Amino acid sequence: MLQKEYIYLFLAILPIVSFLYSSVGHGGASGYLALMALFSFAPETMKPTALLLNLFVAGISFYYYFRSGFFNKKLFVSFALTSIPLAFLGGTIEIDASIYKKILAVLLVFAILKMLNVFGKENGTIKPVKLWQGLVIGGVIGFFSGLIGIGGGIILTPIILLLHWGRMKEAAAVSALFIWVNSASGLIGQLSSGVTLEADSFLLVAIALIGGVLGGYLGSKKINNTQLRYILAGVLLIACFKLIFT
Predict the structure, then answer these.
(1) Which of 14, 59, 67, 54 shows the shortest CA–CA distance to 36?
(2) Ramachandran category for residue 40: left, alpha or beta (phi over 0 → left; psi -120 to 50 → alpha)
(3) Which residues fall within 8 angstroms of residue 147, CB to CB, at 6 or more apart?
């Protein structure tokens, strides 16, 4: 999985990515996928590895946000009812590597905008999400989560904020658990279709947890990491170009 000449650089960047994503309630799959794309990992390796990392980092992030009292159970359930089965379905589908890269590049745009705080503004008036809206949005995000190997929080959080369904910390808490259940469902779908996890994946989990624990704790409190977010946005942008033009 890991190219020996780049292993130390990859392992040094990985916990930084998990730290930044965990601090905003995300598992970091889009960041891990971007990083693996830059280091020329094969798509069949990228998907299950990113989902496995998501399970641990998003789980830690949710724990801290839940303890801080930001979790909205009703908001979460409205999205999760359809996202879980459709994430499993998406995980069972294998797509052409070139198509996979293009779809991933488009989804990374959401991650870049999130890291640049384009979706970071809160609205004083919070509106309740209608059940049909949650079911449709959750189902669509869930399917692409399993198909591409992400948890879907990088898409769900902007939607919650743009449509005024929750505040920033609340959106982070809901997204963290949303990511966890979709990652679990998508990974089960992939494993059931014959995909296997490499032993190195668990080494990456241990290293990602270093940043994930710190990011989840500080993010649920108060943290200002603007400069690091800009750096990560730049890395994601480079990955976008590589995915599109290679």
Answers:
(1) 14
(2) left
(3) 90, 91, 93, 95, 103
Say if residues 235 and 9 touch (Cβ distance below 8 Å): no
47 neighbors 148 (Cβ within 8 angstroms)? yes
Give residue 157's pLDDT.
84
Structural domain range at position 133: 4-245
For the stretch 30-57, pLDDT in tens is 888 888 888 888 777 888 888 999 998 8
pLDDT in tens, 187-234: 999 999 888 888 888 888 899 999 888 888 877 776 555 666 676 677
* Number of domains forming the structure of the chain: 1
CA Rg value for the chain: 16
Q: Both tokens of residue 106? A: 């488009």
Within the chain, residue ranges assigned H as helices are: 7-23, 29-38, 43-67, 73-91, 97-115, 131-148, 153-162, 168-192, 200-220, 226-245
Task: Give the tokens for residue 169.
Answer: 């910390």
**Model's pTM, two decimal places?**
0.85
